[in-house]
Amino acid sequence: MSDRIQVTVWNEFRHEKDSKAVKELYPNGIHAVIAESLAAGDDMAVWTATLDEPEHGLGEKVLDSTDVLIWWGQIAHDEVSDDVVLRVRKRVLSGMGLIVLHSGHFSKIFKSLMGTNCSLKWREAAEKERLWNIQPSHPITDGIGEYIELPNTEMYGERFDIPTPDELIFISWFEGGEVFRSGCTWQRGHGRVFYFRPGHETYPIFYNEQIMRVIANAVRWACPRVVLEDKCPQVKPIEELSPKKVSFGKAGRLQGNQ
Ligand code: ZN
Hints:
Mean pLDDT: 95
Oligomer: single chain
Number of domains: 1
Radius of gyration: 22 Å
Helix content: 10-25%
Strand order of the largest sheet: 2-1-3-4-9-8-7-5-6
Distance between the termini: 58 Å
CATH architecture: 3-Layer(aba) Sandwich
CATH superfamily: Class I glutamine amidotransferase (GATase) domain
Strand content: 25-35%
Number of strands: 9
Low-confidence stretches: none
Largest sheet: 9 strands, mixed
Bound molecules: zinc ion
């Protein structure tokens, strides 16, 4: 077994086939560009999986050997099978890290882990975005500096219908005036979840070195510390219990003579 972090980059891989503009930017898919960038370091082994593969490329075996899963979806969230979503969810709760990018806010897996609608405001007008790094001591922002500036992005605006994040890492400002919680973390079970906003498919976001640095940092941060499958066992006491005079059925009630 390698001691490198095992990363699976998942992509629905649809708009790269349907749209000429996206195809020109990401000819082999967004997943390929992300995977190539992450694999350039020496601490990650990176694999990819896509929607049209059997079990969306996320069979039991793949998930069991994945430390961190990166999720890209945009136009085909509904085509992801509920069985696969449940399998991914179970694995996150056991300890696998999950990084959800951009339009993945509406993916079944993200909504299921958040328990809210995950809706937001949006506008596609190639406007400027400045992502403010408000946690400069956090491992996810290592080497990022005070902010990241993207010249052309799709706008996402508040209110973003998510549960209050455990940690808010980035806040975005947009040229048109909106703001957005662009980098958020949550613990779910034993797993760490990071949502990262940038990434509209018609802009070269995943060729941006700072953006890819955040994603690589997030992979290292989300790597499991433990992997523990959920159980709900009946257990024997650790210490010896004193004998009780009451029947179990009445053990919780106040009685005159105990
Ligand atoms: Zn988008």
